[in-house]
Prior knowledge:
By secondary structure, the protein is an alpha/beta fold. The protein is built from 15 helices and 25 strands. 38% of the residues lie in helices and 21% in strands.
Amino acid sequence: MVHATAVPAFPVNQKVTSIIAGEAIAAARGGFDLQVICPATEEPVSLLREADPDEVELAIAAARNAFDHGPWPRMDINDRNDILHAIRDRLRAHAEELAWLEVLNTGIPLTHVRGQIRRMTRNFEFFAEVASTLSGEVYTQSRGYLTYVTREPKGVAALVSPWNAPLALSSMRIATCIAFGNTCVLKPSEYTPLAVARMVELMHESGLPPGVVNLVNGRGAVTGSALVGSADIDMVGFTGGTRTGRMIMQAAGANLKPCILELGGKSANIIERSADLDRAIDGALVGIYSNNGQQCLAGSRILVQRDVAGSFIERFVERTRKLRIGDPMATETEIGPLAYAEHLQRVLSYVEVARSEGGTVLVGGGRAGGFERGYYMQPTAVMAPSNRTRICQEEIFGPFATFQTFDTLEEAISIANDSPFGLVCYLWSRDLDAAMKVSRDVRAGTVWVNTPMVRDLRAPFGGFKQSGVGRDGATSSAEFFTELKTTTIPIDAAVLPRLGSGSGVHQ
Ligand code: NAD
């Protein structure tokens, strides 16, 4: 595979297999293989051996054994955190290798992926810190009794992650889970397994006990459903699409297993007339086109106040035309290819949907020219005739912005809320009242004012409505990934009825 740049290449595992109890399953074992494709060249770069339900069962058994009998849940927190810090350090030392594998497999530009790699290492560091500061509760109000509440690890987690930021999102799922003493089986996306598999290998090289993190690979309907439908897991952590989230919650619900679900979005980006419009344009471009437009938190519905809309949209379109589309390995590239062929076709199909709904294509609208191979798409923006169109209601998950105009802030808030999703909302404004109103009235898990995505791991992140169930974050992750236990001990001898003794109560 040849890329146009001088970025040094790293070895690619010729066949990615499950990692169970710290050991990679032999590639020679047979089974069903899927091709792993590089979206920039459309060439296969590796094979993925799909884990069948029996292999998934082995992985769950390894996680179960590590939880029920292994050192991890019982380890002194300082020792556990030493391992989490060793993982952080080893992943950092391999940052360029992981970034290269991630770019090769996802098509996300290298400079962006480097940021995600920093996020990956911070996930382990941060949740180690959270776990080490967890505390319980004590109650003494019932006279003569001491009641205390402790948090314990919850057990074995089934974790499922998507392809749009494999390392950042898989590491988030793993770190929030294992930092509290749990064990897990992770199934990453079948489209983008390469860097995640290497990350799991590196975690074991850092001293992680076998069975704490197990990896299975394969399609959602085969490997994923065997994992989340198992009665031997204790919880499910899922990041991915809303449709899949619904199926996963049903499967887990059949066994009464709790779920945390981070799902899709169709977030509004409100540009109010008082905004610093230069910054708002920068923010709107980053909001929709970074990560090749494939982000749950994209500001994909751009709402502009009518009196500033004309010049704002004109300038946005001009900047969109100048975006540097190209080899994702090149550090100057701003937009790379979409992740896989069917996804490109799906995103492109929304251009026709837009036209049929009366939308006007302002820029883009087709495959990007000048590339013999690769799933490249022109960054696209469409003027939408109404928010009640499919292009404004459905998550497109590509470099595809819709524009709408509004007159009053109340109207903008009502458009923002007219969505089945509620992940985030952006506001660009210098008006404090407007910021306070949007923060109060928009039904979304996160509101960003005058900034594109800033993720503070301390704060909860997750969605209202069909954007999710539960939250990631310091307190919320601790709540989801631990069980509460209440212990009551009398300080004085408890008053007990002496049943069957014929002598009343024991004082
Ligand atoms: P997807 O739902 O198609 O797949 C996600 C994962 O689920 C994959 O690993 C897939 O193999 C697995 N899967 C599919 N069917 C399954 C089943 N029946 N049982 C178990 N597992 C199954 O999502 P995607 O296309 O990989 O990712 C894009 C979606 O993820 C978008 O909707 C995006 O908004 C969402 N997302 C959300 C967040 C968030 O934090 N809210 C972050 C990133 C992505």
